[in-house]
Predict the 3D structure of the following.
Amino acid sequence: MDANDLLMGGGIKSVNWKKNPIGYTVIGTITETPKVEQMTKFESTELDFWPSGDPKMQIVVTLQTDERDPANEHDDGKRRLHIPPRMMACVREAIQRVGAKGLEIGGRLAVRRIGGTGQTGDPFTFAAEYGAPAVDPGGLLGGNGGAPAAPAAPMLSQPAQPAAAPVSPAAQSLGITGPAQPMTIPCPQGMDPDKWAALPVAQQQAIVAAMAPAGGGQLPPF
């Protein structure tokens, strides 16, 4: 909890899957470094443990969303997303699909409830997609600068453009556009080819778009 949250008696609302139906999706930009904390038992404040005695851990991510609680005039749209072990697999796979190393500030994360009631024997099931944050092209020039800063990576909620490559049904269901298969984008002149090749396609696209002349063409969103 943030110090001011405690002082002012407020706090960031947590995503509540139980109060929303199957198909409910939370989507937003990561605003803080993800944290790890111990889980509590279902509908209890008592800390939870595995049969082995090891603590059950989960990841907590703060997202800036477009959601607002009409009953709270101070709601800024920030939401805490708790990622328990049951949700980690789909989030991990989403990160791997874009070639990212993990959840980062500035990245876009979407998680959808696709099944389950949350009751004993019928746990919630989820699907996820992730968009890595854009990078500064100057970092690929050995720190010499001279290249414009890359704009924010296309948001996950953007609709597909006519020229966009085909996307997987899972990504489409979460409002995410991008190539379903790996793409190859030539290394721009003056950049380190090895560093360029190591970047995810989404970041390559953002960099090329940032370096394009005014009025020039634009790569399709990821």
